[in-house]
Amino acid sequence: MDSAPTAAVTPDATPAITTADLRKTFSSRTGPVEAVRGVSIEVGAGEIFGLLGPNGAGKTTTLRMLTTLLPIDEGAAQVAGFDVAAHPKKVRECIGYVSQLGGADELATGRENLILQGRLYGATLAEVRPRVDELATILDLAGFADRRVKTYSGGQRRRLDVALGIVHQPDVLFLDEPTTGLDPQNRANLWEHLRALRSLGTTIVLTTHYLEEADVLCDRIVIVDHGRIVAEGTPRELKRRVAGDAVVITVREGTDAGGRTMDVLGAEPYVREISAEGDQLRLYVEDGGTALPRLLRILDHERIGIRAMSLSEPTLDDVFLRQTGRSLRDTGPGDDGRDDGPGDGPGDSARAATVAA
Fold first, then answer.
1. Is the same domain home to 186 and 146?
2. Residue 152 belongs to a domain with what CATH number?
3. Pick from 156, 146, 164: which is nearest to 104 by CA?
4. CA atoms of 159 and 153, how far apart (whole Å)
5. Which whole-number Å values give the CA distances from 253 to 257, 279, 351, in the listed order?
6. How do residues 129-169 score in pLDDT, each as one tens digit?
């Protein structure tokens, strides 16, 4: 079921972000690694723009170039009307950035962190205090805002990181896995706040491993794999590119899903595509309601045992699987919460991106 975003601001004629053939190469023990290989995007003002891709695809590296944390090797980029390479300070004045690693001072309280962040962007103490109180309510920080950050749980710390990125109400907000570690209620609260920011004209670029998040929030999405864009469009447009309904069959242990079972089912004229991964088969069929009983009869006739079978309309995960050969659900954040591409090390903090000085 499509969940198209509502009440989006119509993008201005001048894009908030443009990149042209953006490239970044890192050195490694085995030689140069091209992390970003010619990324060209255009993001309109007041748009929520999503970057999807597996770990190491180049999403975080792209964000770090756009936020001035990494130099651009080749290509060009403009953010909020300023050339990223020529005017990095001007870019930093206009943006907020929430990294995967966060950037709060652990020895200070959450409130002290937020006040400092607001003051660094030029707000007076009288101006920033009401904003901090507002964010404490919106992101449910009030109960621990006056405790030191080092005492926070993972979810509490993540909510503070998001608040640090938006305390100064930036023109362009970059969010790298913003809801990792949040419970469903706080994730939904953050979604509502991001929609409110968009309604005021804030441009938002986010990476996420939550497909529902991308589907619900994003006006447009690009899928990045091996440093290149492999698909682009609205969530609805991308899902429409996957023809038919999706059927996933889990065969019993010992059954050759990738061999005889795949040959038997793939020979049916209503099966448009079929692929195997372990003990699972994924099929795209013309009409799922009609195809399902037919598939069951064939499997029974061939004495192929199954443990489960499911039918669904195409999802963003189907799109991702088709474009990259992998399921995004199987390529979630690493154990340390970082994009595991080259150069995505812990030295770049959120504070480095958001301080305007």
1. yes
2. 3.40.50.300
3. 164
4. 10
5. 10, 7, 50
6. 999 999 998 888 999 999 999 999 888 898 899 899 999 98
